[in-house]
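Q: My labmate handed me this sequence with no annotations at all. I'd like to see what the chain might look like in three dimensions before we decide whether it's worth expressing. Could you predict it?
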Amino acid sequence: MTEKLEILKNIKKQVNQIIIDSSAVKLNLGCGKKKYSNFINVDINPRVKPDIIYDLNKIPWPFKDESIDYILMDNVLEHLDDIISVVTEIYRILKRGGIAEIKVPYWLSKGAHEDPTHKHTFSEKSFDFLKEGFMTDFYTDVRFEVMVEKIWGFGKKFKLIRKLIGDDLASCIPNAIIGLVFYLRKI
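A: Here is what I predict for the chain of 187 residues:
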């Protein structure tokens, strides 16, 4: 197993441990109708009855520094105004070693462009600016360990294409990848 796959496996294991830990503080930011027990569910829309009604574009968020173990943002970040401010705020409220799991549509997927409220699109490299020594690490002083997982399109067609031409080439085909999951671990 490659080193990156091993790190991703360990991060996902840590996420699962945090999720079942009843003492861990977990946020579900932009929860919409996907509310989870043992999470603080946050959304701007009062109709979804979140635990906290809050506009995530308003910085700072109503959480103390280094008070959160885990943050879930499931198809939320693409709707927010300023990605750098958001990841800086995530860094502020996460405990050291805490993880933010951020799910976004892939830039070559239909889902990235069909919703008129999307303000951003994402590729596998979208959070590289958070890595120490990356060429655009000057956008912010916060640093995370960044891992990304691709969510591949469904069906036999994509499986066959991936097998025939490999994942790198297959990822250039529209809708072959439909989403990305970024894991940002605070260092």
